[in-house]
Structures are given as structure tokens and as C-alpha cells.
């Protein structure tokens, strides 16, 4: 009997049988091409079906032309989508995975940038992110909206989907109708809950009339908006019970919040695991229909417990399956310890959405590519009769560890060397900072993989040029992943002053003193997490940056609100728009670079700076031209982010014709 | 749209502008250049139909020279999704189509070639960006280019120039201006190399010179090769200054490979100066042209905030340039050159330099458009103006939406009555003109007034229309009644005034009290202008916003930096990511948005609430059950920007 019997048991959603409780719920990808589902979508969803997911729910598809909040939106109201639907559903269903289409209209949560048209909403209240005033819908707009949902429902059915899900949660016109905060209408679609529910009921009723009562139809409800005058759990339970009584839907999927607090929707590693389950459990207790829980669930043990304890009937695991598409397969075959666990760093997935890039994953950069499809690669080990090829990887940070794995997967005998006494490079150091600890999983995942691949790794071992020249002359592959080094302080220093880079402080563990100034030239985690770490030690912390606000890089990954909550509650003194013009003993002079105004900060015990680093590339240039199969990856090529380190290593597949 | 009614052809007063010029043996029929700019029109990273229609319209409008948007020269550079890859051989066929079409109108065409270097991004292609040195100018530290990288890029420039040559394009403009690897090598701000490509001026110029010479070698004579050169990085501590620019120009010209130099300004810390808004004076780069004219013996192209033929001609006649680049002006009116030649300047649809439609920077991949010209970017899809079925049309509200709707309907042959309740036309646009630095919007008002007159719209001022309006003689009614202030929802106990920003504008900025607290929940010009105007008028202002910084929407139009610089010099302080919780007497209680921590601002003499307005839609809703052919456009649908007002007005005028 499997330890995950609850998670792997089948379940009925209406008349639709799903083979297990794991759902790949709807999320943005930016994979659309020509306003439609693309080859990339098919690769992406197919791979998760291959990996064992019981149910896949596609990203939202728009029902109406005036809803176009981001460039690569699937326009489900265009007939041309049906061909793509058929290809996708056929591919996924071959693996006995069910696939549901999510359909939506974002209402005021968009802009007219691409359409030139006014947005629709129940009441002309602008959304906090886009800040564009919407038009209060007229009766003919309401009719048009409903009809558009019904036509899309028909197209979805025609396209071979096993069901439809309406998004009525964090970004949705229907939620804007349901919420007292955004619906102040005086007509039959406003007023009390009954009026605010009317639109949803009419649409669901209409869809049933078009697709029948056997077709699987679900709604993704907003459990709580967590804001004044917003939707509450009580309202949602009342709504769910009303839908259940009317017999309109077959299951309830869940989400929460809205654009006022988007950090609650795709919680980063700062949010606790399973942070929404308490809400879902309350809903499940009240209703009889199946309920899906979603949110920072990345482990089969946890997922199984949620179901066993009756907190939900199914579990949405999105980032967990982006990172490891074989999540379910590994769970089923007692290899759960081989799952490459998601960090919820949000850098590759959610973090790229707001910038209009297509989805990726820091740990799995091939997500969504044809190369991810099983059977799509031909990783052959060494051919018989061929001499064993060797690969030497210098540096066991994220780039080096990943490169060692890639070389081993290609049949090389790999030797990995790390000069420090632990593997992990900068990730190991930075993972000790508040809000970043889950990054330790990254290194753990990589080390586990190397163990399975039987790669020898040696720490506390610095390899010199001579040794590498010897190895390299033997037609071995030399991969340098020697990382980055700290750049000199980006300001003038006179007198005795204690100045460290963030990394130096972490590695030396010096005590910076009582009153510390953090200087941020990056706008990302090093300075933010360092400031928080110092506050945790009850120091008097100041943070200066030339940027308009601290932590602009924290926005896309939904780390910003919780960071600010943490530091604003504890008296972090922030100085924006300034550069440090001089550090003189314990006095720091700041200058506002917009107006030239200067101010002095006194009695500063230490200045900690977060600035771009320099490549540690000395070894590379000593070997260049002398070793035939040499390359450098990660920060020693150009200091960037961990996702680049790993992608550089993965791209070695194309750089090296491993089997030539 | 174009209007020729009522003008007669007369001798134009711009002789220099229409004097032909030869470059590399190729005759350019006049001095008006449509400069290279990003459009986001590319399909699969190739120039396409939209480009063809777009450039063709400016050729029909008689532009002398069109420089096509940059083609990226090397696969190491993928700076934005809709970049054109000039290194893909398929471009040849596409460029050939464009070149042929433009030539048939007597317009010459160049291709800009570029590599973004360290100003690019690795987020799309997944690799690293390249630069001369490990200097991080954006958010990504570049790889310091190795010799083989540099050789590849030099060869790439040459190969792409060859592609242009094969396509029948008349030449190339090599970009050493904004967003360019070439400038990054030229500038000590970004080039710290220790080899022969860094250090002295000649060293820093070496890479650029190699590119130029290789390009010339691949393409030979009767092919124009020009260099767009940064003359001011606005970073005098280490960057290119005008003096250094002249030095570089002289040195590079000495190679003999060039046929012209084109002036660019702005660099990594001054993006807002490269295509600046109306806050920057017209023709602001002309002095750099003059410096170059004195130093080198090469035709000089000057551009930047030149929107009238008069200024363009003057720059030429003052000896400050040989060619003038009027890009945004010809986005706004593709017939600019023709109208100037025919002496119909008053009918030129004016570029406002508002940057609202044409600014395509960033990753949202918005298609280029223009606030005052609905057809910009839509040349292939737009159908010509269709005549209407005749009859009368009423337009209620004389703001930009109403003026546009009225003029379009009249142009289509309708008899149009435009009703305006005030004593002047303009609606909220009149207030918008009062925003410091936005006086350039007056041009639009002047243009509309002339236009309405020339198409015969009957204007009825001081006529407020109510639901009793007798519309039975009208075949259609268009409501364009605009927006009103959203009532502040702040709780006070009436000890100090709490007003909305829009109302304050409407009553001429009269507000008692010295120390004001202004809540910015709008982030746009109405708010930033109010802060500035009140501060200039002597008030002490504390700006509170729930956003991370005030004036957040000004970043969309490159107006933020200049505004912030100005107001920081005034008596204005900022409290960001806070909300007003309560007003108690003259004390305002604030709450920090994330932690809930409280903060007091006191004493305060008055509170101003700047929020997005509400639509004035009552008249529309009242008329709706009574009038069968009723339309509405602009802010009375949903209060948005000038772009939406004019575009919806245009569409309403077409829909009747």
C-alpha cells in the first residue's frame, strides 16, 4: 500500500473520472502564439501528462475582445482556436490525463493598451495595478458578456476538453461583480449577495443549457479578498452552497486575494507551505462537492496529508510540476526523494510574467520547450568500444553542479571540484538570509542528482592551472564555473571606515557593529535580505539606494509586500534617490541625484554594499587557447542570477556535441 | 487624416528644406528625414507588411529620406521581442519590397544597424549580454567581449550592410547613439578595457572604426554609410561630452568611410533625453550640429523636438545641419513634407511630443501608434475615409473627443453641430495645457479650432445640452461630455478643506493655506502638474501616495525624471507607500501600506485628493432610451487619456 494512497486515488468530478488527486491548475505562461494555444503549450502540458498529472487546467482563455490585459492572451472567442484545442486535448488525453479549459474575462484588471477600448467593470473603480478607469457596464454589455461565455463554452467542448472552469477569483470580472468592494451597482446585478451572484448564476445556467449537464463544469472561487469591504470566507461559503443547491457545478477550485494583494496568490518562499489550506478546509467542511486546494504545496507527503485529513479532495501543484514534471510519476514509483522540489523563488515562472517574458523555471529551464518532452532527447551513454570521456568541472556552485549533472547524463566520467569546504557557491551563503532559506533546496536537489548519477565531488580542493593543463591535454572537457568576485566599493572612502560587500559580510561573519548602513545598487534580494538580517539582530539599520524605492526587483516575484511589512514594522530607515558620494570614517555623505541635495549620516559603524560583481575569470584566461575543450559558465562568464548559472549549464548540451 | 480644402498652392517659405542633397552619389530630394525608431511591427523578427504600409505613407507624404528601424546585427543581441534580425537572410526580400516601394515615390531609404550591447537583455534569448567591459548599466552585468566576439560583431555589421545593399536599400546608418554597443566602446563611462580597444580616444574608437571600414569594404561606392553619434551622454564625470563628441567625430571622419554623421543624445542614465517630451525645448540638439559642422567636413543630420517646417528650415539656414530629422512630426502627420512644400502648414496635424502613442520601449511590445493620428501603425489595415450618408450630426461636448468626432463627421460630409457648455472649446484639455511643461498641448487646441472651421463644423458655445434636447433633426448624436472629479472619500471633521485635484484645477488653483497634503492615487499629469504648480506658487506640499513613488505613470512617457528634478528643488516632500487613514483637525493620520504602522503629518492647512475622475455619463444614459442613434466617446465612457479620447472620437465620427 503506497504511502501516498490518498493522493493517488481516483476521484469523480461530476461524471468525469480523474485518475489521481494532483491537479496542474491554471496559470499564465505567455506561450500563446497567434492569439491561440501553441506548440509550446502542447509540449508543456503533454510533458506534465507524461509525468502523471491526473488533471490539467489550462491557463485562462479570454471570452471577449475587450479583455486583453497582456500581449499573449488566448482569444477563445476566435474560431481559429478550436484546431489548437483538438491537438492539445488529444495529446494529453492519450496519457489518461483529463484536461479542462479555464475561461475568463479580467474586467477592470487590465488596460486598453492593446485594444484601445474601454475596460468593463460593474462600477468605474480603477484597479490598483493598471490604474485605468473602467466603464460601468450597460445592459447590452451584460448580454454580450454572457453570450460570449456561452459561445466559448461551446468551442471548448468542440475542441475536446473534458470540462470548463470559470475563473471567479483573483483576476476576474465575475469576481468584481461578486465583491462588495468593486460592485456598487443599483440594478439586479448589484446590492446584496443575491444580486452580486446573479451574473455568475446566469452564466453557469446558460453554459449548462449549451453543453448539457453531463459535461464537467467547475468554478475557481476567491476564498477571501483580505481587504476592507471585500469578499470574505463566509460569503464564499454561502455562494458555494447556493451553487451546490442549484446543481450547476461539479467542483470548486480555489484561490484568494486580488490585485491589491497579489503576493497572496502566487506566494513566494516567504509564504508558508500550504498557506491557503485552512481556508479550503473551511469551505470543504461546508460543501459536498469536491474541493481543490492550491498554494505552496510542493511535497507529496504534505499533499497526501491534506487529503487524508479532509482539508481538500484534490491538490493543485503548479510550480512543483513546472520544476519537476515527473512529480506524480516519482511519487507513484516510490521515488519521492528524487523529486526536484520547487523553491517558490518565483523568478522563472511568475517573475517573468509581469515583464511579458515566457514562462521558465530556475531549476528547469527547459520547461515548455520541445526538449522537455520524454523521448525527445537521445542521451546515449558512451558507445561501445569508445574510450571513456572525462569532464572536469571546477566550481560547485549552482552552475558547476548543474554542469556536472549534464555531463554525467551524457555519459561522461565527471570530476567536480570545489575550493570551499561546502558546495553551493553564493547560493549557500545567501540562503542563510531571511526569506531566502528555501534556496538551500536548490543545492540539495543538485547534490542528490549528482549522487544518483554517481559523480565524484571533492570539496576544500582548489585545482591549479598546471593540473588543468594536464587534464585538458587529454581531450577531456574542462568546464569552469568559478563564479564571481566582489567588485570594489562604489564610492570614495577616506579615513578608517568599515566597508563590506554583502557577500563579504556573509562569508567572513564579521560583526558590523550597532549602526549599519546598507547601500543597494541592485534593487534585489542581497540588500533587502541583508537589511532584514541585521534588523533581526536588533541593529540600527539604514538603507540607501539611488533607486526610487527599495526592492524594485522584489516586485515581480511577489516578495516586496512581505519584505516591507517586515522592515517597516521595525524601523528600517530608508533613503531613496541617493548615491553615496563619500564615506569618511563613520560619516557617510549621501547625495540626491535628482536635485543635488546632500545629507550626512553620522556614527555609521559599517557600510554594507550590494553592487554588481565581477567575473572570477582568471583561470579561464590562463587556460584559453591552451586547452581545446574549454568553456566557462555562470558568473565567471558574466555575473548574473542563479537561473542563468543553471541555464548556461543546461545549454552545454548544444555547446558540446557530447558524442562527437 | 488630411485636409486640403480651402488652401491654394503658394510659394513655400522653406527653400533650404527642399533643396536636394547628394550623399555618395545618391540624390536625396529634400532635407526631411524620417529617422529610425522602434515600431514593434516585426513578425518573426522580420520586417513585414505593417512596416511597408507605414513607410510608404511617409514616402507618399514626400519625405526625402527614410531610415528604417534598426536591424540587429548579431545573434548575441535579442533586446526586445519584436526586434528585426538583420542577420537573417530573409530580410533581403522584405527590405527589397520596401526599398522598391519607397523609390517609386522618389524617397531614399537607409537601414539603421545596431547591437544593444550591455543595454540589451538576456531574458529573451537566455544568454548573457555583451559589452566592452564589466560595467553594469542596466540590471545585467555584461560579459567583457573577447577578441573573437568583437571580430564576429564587426563581420556581422558588414554582412548585414551587405544584406541591405543586395536589397537595393540606399545605405546604412550605423548606430553609435543610444542603446548601442558602438557607443559603449566609444565612451569612458562604459569602456574600461586595458587592451588596444580601451584607454585613449583612438583606442576607444577602434572598434567603431573597424565596423565602419568593414561595412564600407563590403558595400563599396554608391552606397551611403552614416554614423549616428552620441554627442552628449549627460554624464560629464566620465561620459561623452560635446567636446569629446567633436573629437570622436573628427577622428572617425578621417577614416573616409562615412558619408554623414547624425546627432544623438542621451545614454544609460539619461534615456529620457533621447526622445524627450514636450518639456524639453524644441530643436535642443541644434547646437551640437553646429559644433560638428564647424569641425568636420561631412553632412550633418540633426533631430530632436523639431516639429515645424519653420524651425527645420532655420536649423538648415543657420548652418547647424544639412539634413533635419523630424520623426515624431511625420508619425503624427505623414504628409508633413508635402504640406510644407505646398504652403499648407496650418493643416499639418501637430506632433505634441507627448510620447503617449509612439513610445515603444519596454517589454510590453505595444504597437506604435500616435495620439493625434489614428492611422499611424494601421496604414495597411485602415480603409480610406468613407463618405457618410448625409444629414445632420450633433456632438455634445467640445473637448478633444468631441472635436475629433465633429471634424471626422464633417469631413465625411455630414452637417455637424458641436455644442459646448463653456465659452471656449477644449474641455479638460484646457486644464491639461496648464500643467507645467505641458503648454505644448495648446498646439492641439489651435489645430482643432482651425480644422473645425475649415470643415465647416457649426460651433455653439455656452450651450449646455440636457435630456430635453431636441435631436429629431439629427441622424446621430455623439456624446462627449468628459469627466468630473471623483469626490474625495477621506474622512475629516471639516476643520480643514478637503478638495479633489480636478476641482482645484477647475477653480484656478485657489486654495487657502500654506501647508498642503496631496494624496496621489492617480500618478499622472493632473497630479504631478498640480504638485508643481502649487509649489511654484509658494505652497509647502507633502505628497502621500500608496504607490512606491509618486507620479508613477510619468515613467510611461519619459517625463518622470525631469519632473522629479524640478519638484525636488521646490518645497515638496514625499511619503510613499502610505495611505491617509483619517483627518483630525489639522492633523493627518497616515498608515503605511504594508506594515500598518501609523504616522502623523501636522499641521496641515488643506488636503488635496488626486484620484482618477468619474465619467460624466448622465446625459448619455438619459438620452439612451430616447435616441436610437446615440454614441459616446472619450472620458464620458471611462476617463482615460488624450489618446483614448481622440481615438474614440475618431471612431465615433466614422461610425455615424
Describe the protein's architecture and organization.
The complex is a heterodimer of chains A (660) and B (656). By secondary structure, chain A is α/β, with parallel strands linked by helices. Chain A has 3 domains: 368 residues, TIM Barrel; 135 residues, Rossmann fold, CATH 3.40.50.720; 121 residues, FAD/NAD(P)-binding domain, CATH 3.50.50. In chain A, strands 3, 4, 5, 6, 7, 10, 11, 12, 13 and 14 form a 10-stranded parallel beta sheet that branches. About 1% of the residues of chain A have low confidence. Chain B has 656 residues and is α/β, with parallel strands linked by helices. Chain B has 3 domains: 332 residues, TIM Barrel (Alpha-Beta Barrel); 134 residues, NAD(P)-binding Rossmann-like Domain (Rossmann fold), CATH 3.40.50; 115 residues, FAD/NAD(P)-binding domain (3-Layer(bba) Sandwich). Chain B is built from 18 helices and 28 strands. Chain B has an 8-stranded parallel β-barrel with strand order 3-4-6-9-10-11-12-13, surrounded by 7 helices. The longest helix of chain B has 20 residues. Chain B is globular and about 75 Å long. The N terminus of chain B is likely disordered. At the A-B interface, strand 9, helix 19, strand 29 and helix 21 of A face strand 8, helix 16, strand 27 and helix 18 of B.
Amino acid at each position: 500500500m503506497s504511502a501516498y494512497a490518498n493522493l493517488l486515488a481516483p476521484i469523480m468530478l461530476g461524471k468525469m473520472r480523474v485518475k489521481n488527486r494532483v491537479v496542474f491548475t491554471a496559470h499564465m505562461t505567455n506561450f500563446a502564439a497567434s492569439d491561440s494555444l501553441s506548440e509550446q503549450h502542447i509540449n508543456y502540458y503533454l510533458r506534465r501528462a507524461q509525468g502523471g498529472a491526473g488533471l490539467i487546467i489550462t491557463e485562462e482563455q479570454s471570452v471577449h475582445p475587450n479583455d486583453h490585459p497582456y500581449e499573449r492572451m488566448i482569444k477563445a472567442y476566435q474560431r481559429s482556436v478550436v484546431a489548437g484545442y483538438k491537438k492539445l486535448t488529444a495529446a494529453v488525453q492519450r496519457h489518461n490525463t483529463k484536461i479542462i479549459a479555464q475561461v475568463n474575462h479580467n474586467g477592470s484588471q487590465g488596460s486598453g493598451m492593446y485594444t484601445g477600448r474601454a475596460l468593463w467593470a460593474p462600477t468605474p473603480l480603477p484597479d490598483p495595478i493598471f490604474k485605468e478607469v473602467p466603464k460601468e457596464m450597460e445592459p447590452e454589455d451584460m448580454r454580450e458578456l454572457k453570450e460570449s461565455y456561452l459561445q466559448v463554452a461551446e468551442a471548448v467542448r468542440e475542441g475536446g476538453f473534458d470540462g470548463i472552469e470559470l475563473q471567479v477569483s483573483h483576476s476576474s470580472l465575475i469576481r468584481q461583480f461578486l465583491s462588495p468592494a468593486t460592485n456598487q451597482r443599483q440594478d439586479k446585478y448589484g446590492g446584496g449577495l443575491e444580486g452580486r451572484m446573479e451574473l455568475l448564476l446566469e452564466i453557469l445556467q446558460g453554459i449548462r443549457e449549451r453543453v448539457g449537464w453531463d459535461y464537467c463544469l467547475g468554478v475557481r472561487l476567491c476564498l477571501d479578498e483580505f481587504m476592507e469591504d471585500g469578499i470574505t470566507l463566509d460569503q464564499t461559503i454561502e455562494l458555494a452552497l447556493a451553487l451546490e443547491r442549484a446543481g450547476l457545478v461539479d467542483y470548486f477550485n480555489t484561490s484568494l486575494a486580488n490585485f491589491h494583494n497579489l503576493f497572496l496568490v502566487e506566494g513566494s518562499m516567504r509564504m508558508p507551505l500550504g498557506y491557503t489550506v485552512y481556508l479550503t478546509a473551511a469551505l470543504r467542511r461546508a460543501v459536498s462537492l469536491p474541493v481543490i486546494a492550491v498554494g505552496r504545496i510542493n511535497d507529496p507527503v504534505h499533499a497526501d496529508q491534506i487529503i487524508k485529513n479532509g482539508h481538500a479532495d484534490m491538490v493543485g501543484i503548479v510550480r512543483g510540476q513546472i520544476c519537476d514534471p515527473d512529480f506524480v510519476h516519482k511519487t507513484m514509483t516510490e521515488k519521492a526523494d528524487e523529486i526536484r522540489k520547487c523553491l517558490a523563488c518565483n523568478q522563472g515562472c511568475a517573475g517573468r510574467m509581469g515583464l511579458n517574458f515566457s514562462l521558465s523555471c530556475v531549476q528547469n529551464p527547459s520547461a515548455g520547450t520541445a526538449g522537455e518532452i520524454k523521448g525527445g532527447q537521445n542521451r546515449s551513454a558512451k558507445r561501445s568500444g569508445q574510450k571513456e570521456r572525462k569532464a572536469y568541472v571546477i566550481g560547485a556552485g549552482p552552475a558547476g553542479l548543474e554542469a556536472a549533472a549534464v555531463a554525467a547524463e551524457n555519459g561522461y566520467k565527471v570530476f567536480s571540484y570545489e575550493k570551499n569546504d561546502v558546495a553551493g557557491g553564493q547560493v549557500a551563503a545567501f540562503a542563510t538570509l531571511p526569506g531566502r532559506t528555501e534556496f538551500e533546496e536548490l543545492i540539495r536537489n543538485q547534490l542528490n542528482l549528482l549522487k544518483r548519477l554517481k559523480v565524484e565531488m571533492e570539496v576544500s580542493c582548489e585545482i591549479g592551472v598546471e593540473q588543468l593543463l594536464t587534464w585538458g591535454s587529454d581531450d577531456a572537457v574542462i568546464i569552469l564555473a568559478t563564479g564571481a568576485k566582489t567588485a570594489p566599493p562604489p564610492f570614495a572612502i577616506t579615513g578608517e571606515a568599515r566597508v563590506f560587500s554583502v557577500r563579504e559580510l556573509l562569508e567572513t561573519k564579521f560583526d558590523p557593529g550597532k549602526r549599519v548602513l546598507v547601500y543597494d545598487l541592485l534593487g534585489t534580494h542581497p540588500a533587502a535580505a541583508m537589511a532584514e538580517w541585521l534588523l533581526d539582530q536588533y541593529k540600527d539599520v539604514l538603507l540607501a539606494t539611488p533607486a526610487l524605492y527599495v526592492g524594485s526587483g522584489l516586485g515581480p516575484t511577489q516578495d516586496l509586500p512581505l519584505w516591507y511589512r517586515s522592515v517597516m514594522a521595525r524601523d528600517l530607515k530608508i533613503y531613496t534617490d541617493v548615491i553615496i558620494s563619500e564615506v569618511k570614517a563613520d560619516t557617510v555623505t549621501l547625495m540626491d541625484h535628482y536635485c543635488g541635495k546632500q545629507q550626512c549620516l553620522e556614527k555609521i559603524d559599517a557600510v554594507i554594499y550590494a553592487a554588481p560583481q565581477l567575473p572570477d575569470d582568471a583561470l579561464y584566461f590562463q587556460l584559453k587557447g591552451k586547452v581545446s575543450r574549454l568553456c566557462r559558465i555562470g558568473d565567471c562568464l558574466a555575473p548574473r542570477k542563479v537561473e542563468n548559472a543553471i541555464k548556461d549549464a543546461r545549454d552545454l548540451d548544444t555547446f558540446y556535441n557530447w558524442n562527437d | 487624416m488630411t485636409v486640403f480644402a480651402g488652401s491654394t498652392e503658394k510659394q513655400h517659405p522653406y527653400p533650404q528644406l527642399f533643396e536636394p542633397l547628394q550623399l555618395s552619389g545618391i540624390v536625396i530630394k529634400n532635407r526631411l528625414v524620417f529617422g529610425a525608431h522602434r515600431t514593434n511591427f516585426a513578425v518573426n523578427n522580420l520586417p513585414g507588411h505593417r512596416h511597408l504600409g507605414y513607410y510608404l505613407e511617409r514616402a507618399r507624404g514626400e519625405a526625402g529620406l527614410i531610415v528604417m528601424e534598426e536591424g540587429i546585427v548579431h545573434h548575441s543581441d535579442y533586446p526586445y521581442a519584436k526586434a528585426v534580425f538583420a542577420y537573417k537572410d530573409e530580410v533581403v526580400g522584405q527590405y527589397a519590397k520596401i526599398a522598391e516601394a519607397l523609390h517609386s515615390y522618389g524617397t531614399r531609404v537607409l537601414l539603421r544597424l545596431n547591437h544593444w550591447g550591455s543595454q540589451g537583455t538576456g531574458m529573451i534569448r537566455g544568454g548573457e549580454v555583451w559589452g566592452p567591459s564589466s560595467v553594469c548599466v542596466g540590471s545585467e552585468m555584461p560579459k567583457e567581449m573577447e577578441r573573437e566576439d568583437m571580430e564576429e560583431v564587426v563581420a556581422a555589421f558588414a554582412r548585414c550592410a551587405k544584406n541591405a545593399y543586395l536589397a537595393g536599400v540606399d545605405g546604412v546608418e550605423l548606430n553609435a547613439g543610444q542603446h548601442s554597443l558602438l557607443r559603449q566602446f566609444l565612451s569612458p563611462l562604459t569602456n574600461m578595457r586595458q587592451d588596444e580597444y580601451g584607454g585613449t580616444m583612438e583606442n576607444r574608437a577602434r572598434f567603431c572604426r573597424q565596423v565602419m571600414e568593414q561595412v564600407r569594404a563590403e558595400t563599396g561606392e554608391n552606397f551611403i554609410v552614416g554614423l549616428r553619434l552620441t554627442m552628449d551622454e549627460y554624464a560629464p564625470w566620465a561620459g561623452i561630452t560635446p567636446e569629446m563628441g567633436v573629437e570622436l567625430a573628427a577622428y572617425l571622419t578621417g577614416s573616409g568611410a562615412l558619408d554623414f554623421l547624425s546627432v544623438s543624445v542621451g545614454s544609460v542614465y539619461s534615456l529620457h533625453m533621447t526622445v524627450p517630451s514636450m518639456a524639453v525645448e524644441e530643436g535642443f540638439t541644434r547646437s551640437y550640429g553646429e559644433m560638428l559642422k564647424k569641425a568636420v567636413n561631412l553632412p550633418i543630420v540633426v533631430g530632436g523636438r523639431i516639429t515645424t517646417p519653420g524651425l527645420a528650415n532655420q536649423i538648415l539656414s543657420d548652418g547647424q545641419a544639412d539634413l533635419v530629422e523630424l520623426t515624431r512630426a511625420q508619425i503624427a502627420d505623414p504628409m508633413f513634407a508635402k504640406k510644407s512644400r505646398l504652403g499648407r502648414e496650418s493643416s499639418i496635424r501637430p506632433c505634441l511630443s507627448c510620447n503617449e502613442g509612439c513610445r515603444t520601449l519596454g517589454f510590453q511590445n505595444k504597437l506604435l501608434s500616435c495620439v493625434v493620428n489614428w492611422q499611424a501603425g494601421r496604414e495597411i489595415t485602415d480603409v480610406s475615409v468613407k463618405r457618410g450618408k448625409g444629414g445632420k450630426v450633433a456632438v455634445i461636448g467640445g473637448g478633444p473627443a468631441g472635436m475629433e468626432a465633429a471634424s471626422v463627421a464633417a469631413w465625411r460630409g455630414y452637417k455637424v453641430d458641436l455644442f459646448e457648455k463653456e465659452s471656449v472649446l477644449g474641455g479638460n484639455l484646457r486644464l491639461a495645457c496648464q500643467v507645467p511643461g505641458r503648454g505644448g498641448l495648446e498646439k492641439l487646441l489651435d489645430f482643432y479650432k482651425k480644422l473645425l472651421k475649415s470643415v465647416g463644423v457649426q460651433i455653439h458655445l455656452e450651450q449646455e445640452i440636457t435630456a430635453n434636447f431636441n435631436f429629431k433633426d439629427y441622424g446621430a448624436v455623439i456624446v462627449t461630455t468628459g469627466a468630473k472629479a471623483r469626490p474625495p472619500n477621506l474622512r475629516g471633521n471639516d476643520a480643514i478643506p478637503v478638495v479633489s485635484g480636478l476641482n482645484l484645477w477647475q477653480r484656478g488653483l485657489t486654495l487657502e493655506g500654506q501647508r498642503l497634503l496631496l494624496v496621489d492615487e492617480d500618478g499622472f499629469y493632473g497630479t504631478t502638474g498640480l504638485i508643481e504648480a502649487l509649489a511654484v506658487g509658494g505652497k509647502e506640499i507633502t505628497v502621500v501616495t500608496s504607490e512606491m513613488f509618486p507620479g508613477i505613470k510619468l515613467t510611461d512617457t519619459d517625463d518622470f525624471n525631469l519632473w522629479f528634478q524640478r519638484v525636488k528643488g521646490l518645497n515638496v516632500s514625499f511619503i510613499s507607500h502610505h495611505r491617509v487613514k483619517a483627518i483630525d483637525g489639522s492633523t493627518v493620520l497616515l498608515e503605511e501600506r504594508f506594515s500598518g504602522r501609523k504616522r502623523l503629518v501636522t499641521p496641515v492647512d488643506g488636503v488635496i485628493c488626486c484620484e482618477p475622475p468619474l465619467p460624466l455619463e448622465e446625459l448619455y444614459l438619459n438620452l439612451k432610451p430616447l435616441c436610437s442613434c446615440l454614441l459616446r466617446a472619450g472620458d464620458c465612457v471611462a476617463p482615460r487619456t488624450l489618446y483614448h479620447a481622440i481615438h474614440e472620437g475618431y471612431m465615433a465620427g466614422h461610425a455615424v
